Amino acid sequence: MNDSREWTPQAVQAEVDALKHKPGALLPILHALQDRFDHVPEGAVPIIAESLGLTRAEVHGVISFYHHFRTSPPGRHVVQVCRAEACQARGARPLEAHAKATLGVGYHQTTAGREITLEAVYCLGNCACGPSVRVDDQILGRVTPERFDALVDELRTQPLEVLG
């Protein structure tokens, strides 16, 4: 069975072909690829470059400039820590250090077993309730190191299916 999240050169080319005629097509193409495959596959870079008349370095430069784009599949859960000024003023820096130490990874890295990917984000729009964290699609405010630990424990706990 083929998972639609697994990329192929043909699937990448189809996404590129659908958008390459738009003005400023590179960003829409990168977004489409990440939406479809959960990341921008490294093997997509030469396909994009060739189709848009760009160098591989130009495409890679855009991917690496924007923190939103990933070049490898994320873990089962994505945890984003807000690094904007309002959250920093409310304790985001110590929370960042705690998150990295607790998970044993840095930003844009994934824990062993592909459980949790840690990412930085630069404003979740929850400024009055910082420091803020987004876990998958849920934004949480006033996250302390203790609350972070509880969130991680919850993410790591997988429900067991009992067959009877």
Explain what you see.
Helix content is 43%, strand content 12%. The protein has a five-stranded mixed sheet, with helices on one face. Helix 1 (9-19) packs parallel to helix 3. The chain is α+β, with helices and mostly antiparallel strands. 25% of the residues are buried.
Write the layout of secondary structure elements.
Elements: H1 9-19, H2 26-37, H3 44-52, H4 56-65, E1 77-82, H5 85-89, H6 92-103, E2 109-110, E3 116-121, E4 133-135, E5 138-140, H7 145-156
Parallel strand pairs: 1-3
Antiparallel strand pairs: 1-4, 2-3, 4-5
Helix pairs in contact: 1-2, 1-3, 3-4, 6-7
Order of helices and strands: HHHHEHHEEEEH
User: Which segments are poorly predicted (pLDDT under 50) over 5 or more consecutive residues?
Assistant: none
Structural category: alpha+beta
Shape: globular
DSSP strand tally: 5
Number of helices: 7
How large, in whole angstroms, is the Cα Rg?
Answer: 18 Å
Quote the average pLDDT. Answer: 93
Strand content: 5-15%
Major sheet strand order: 2-3-1-4-5
- The N- and C-terminal alpha carbons lie at a distance of 27 Å
Largest sheet: 5 strands, mixed
Helix content: 40-55%
